[in-house]
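Researcher: Next entry in the queue.
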Amino acid sequence: MPNSSIIYAVQNSTDKQIDLTELTIRDTVVVVAKDSDETTYYGNDIRIVTPRDFLYVPDLDQSLTVGDEIYLDNQSLQKWVVRQGWYSVDDNPAIYGWYLESIPSGKIRSLFLKDFNSLTFVTPKTEFTLPEIVDPEP
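Model: Structure for this entry, 138 residues:
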């Protein structure tokens, strides 16, 4: 793997985890990827997951990713979707980070560390396993 910060890839059509063994990047765009079975995936067919793409929730042994739908136990009737990017709450200056957007009204709320203690996933998360990291031979 040319970049050790890549954790794994996901096939867009099935949301199946792909443990990459080969990755071809041209001008910062993924062109082709291969897995241990030598299956070829083209750039538009997969998304690459790095440590910046998820937040680990230790109490649940799960990860939050953009697009996940959750309930906060203290607001069990309100459904939220997890977002990442520039956002502003109550006309304050915009900041970059993880936040929640209410469904369906679209109200924005910051995602706090304390929220990790009270969240429930709307749909169960599929588990992913971190692939074994193999150091390239010198």
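Model: The radius of gyration is 17 Å.
Researcher: Noted, moving on.
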